[in-house]
Design brief:
By secondary structure, this protein is mainly alpha-helical. It has one domain. Helices cover 70% and strands 2% of the residues. The chain contains twelve helices and two strands; from the N terminus they run H-H-H-H-E-E-H-H-H-H-H-H-H-H. The protein has a two-stranded antiparallel sheet. Strand 1 and strand 2 form a beta hairpin. It is globular, with a radius of gyration of 20 Å.
Length: 341
């Protein structure tokens, strides 16, 4: 795929996302779809009460539209022969990843945000409902990938490959759910999830291309571009939040791209910020329960989890957290890319 087309697709996604904000954000304010802030969060977050949610529609529309446009131009300029079996399989794989991201966002994200906005509370779907949606959609994605010819049951750890046989599918189901929720947890302060995703998706663009998945590479860079357009509205002080609508879309896209390309360990390296943010919640919860059982009172390792809130309570500015976390993610993303050169 020509570099000019890839760059044009990214710029198109950014422009669509940024310009659409002039329409979407006033509309969300008009219908009072604002964020409800948790009582136990940092005190200064109270000023964000009422900030419009569902801003994720900006990069959802931007990335999907730019991908469709870029892929159409590529075909019309003779970049791919859709009549060949290989090309049609790649196209169907791209469509599967895009639809998975979109429907996952709609079912798990939009529904959750809608309940929050209507009920004026911080919690939407209950945990059981979320898990049910996630299991169904992730299982469906793996089934479709199997139907498209991906019958491989090995997990690539770069230095070795482990064949899990039939256990591959439940393992990947849990892996996908963890990674998607990890991206969701990273959406906690202004600009953090969007900035980290720009970095991770740029790395995924290079990795997908190195695996010969040019269509998926196009989708990855349009998401990176669309997130840049979204950050126009989301950097501190945020004029809108992506909400679960956006974070579930990004998590679904990021995870599906990695699984479709079978880059299991690479996905962890590129998404190291997501992984550690979610891991901090697991560690905090387990330690709290352990100390409560042993000492009669729960104790904490971090001032607050996910860990980006810990740094907030350590008086780091939101800009500093975004910058440090993004650079940390970039370092591991570059490492992942270098392993494929």
């Amino acid at each position: 795929m020509p570099i000019w087309l890839t760059l044009c697709a990214a710029v198109t996604a950014a422009v669509i996302a940024a310009l659409f904000g002039f329409i979407l954000i006033p509309f969300l304010r008009r219908i009072h779809f604002g964020q409800t802030i948790l009582e136990e969060g940092p005190a200064w977050h109270k000023s964000k009460q009422g900030t419009p949610i569902m801003g994720g529609f900006l990069f959802i529309i931007g990335s999907l539209a730019a991908t469709a446009l870029g892929y159409t131009v590529w075909r019309l300029t003779g970049g791919t022969d859709i009549t060949s079996h290989e090309s049609s399989t790649h196209a169907l794989r791209l469509l599967t990843v895009m639809l998975f991201s979109l429907f996952y966002s709609g079912a798990c994200g939009f529904t959750d945000d809608f309940i929050k906005a209507v009920k004026k509370r911080n919690e939407g779907l209950n945990p059981k409902q979320k898990i049910l949606f996630q299991v169904v959609f992730c299982a469906a994605f793996l089934a479709i990938m199997y139907a498209l010819g991906d019958h491989e049951t090995t997990i690539d750890l770069m230095f070795c490959k482990l064949n899990f046989g039939p256990f591959y599918y439940p393992v990947m189901l849990l892996f996908m759910i963890y990674m998607i929720n990890a991206v969701n947890l990273t959406d906690g302060i202004d600009g953090l999830c969007g900035s980290v995703t720009v970095v991770s998706m740029l790395c995924m663009t290079v990795l997908c291309a190195s695996f010969g998945e040019l269509e998926l590479s196009l989708y990855a860079i349009t998401i990176a571009g669309a997130c840049i357009g979204f950050l126009v509205w989301n950097l501190h002080p945020a004029k809108c939040f992506m909400g679960d609508t956006g974070s579930m879309y990004l998590g679904g896209a990021f995870t599906a791209l990695g699984v479709a390309c079978r880059m299991h360990l690479l996905l962890v390296l590129v998404g190291i910020v997501y992984v550690l943010d979610a891991l901090s919640v697991v560690i905090q919860t387990l330690y709290f329960k352990y100390t409560r059982r042993k000492y009669g009172e729960g104790r904490r390792i971090f001032k607050m989890s996910p860990i980006h809130h810990h740094f907030e309570l350590c008086k780091w500015s939101e800009y500093k957290i975004v910058m440090v976390f993004s650079l940390f993610g970039l370092a591991f993303g570059v490492l992942a890319v270098l392993t494929q050169i």
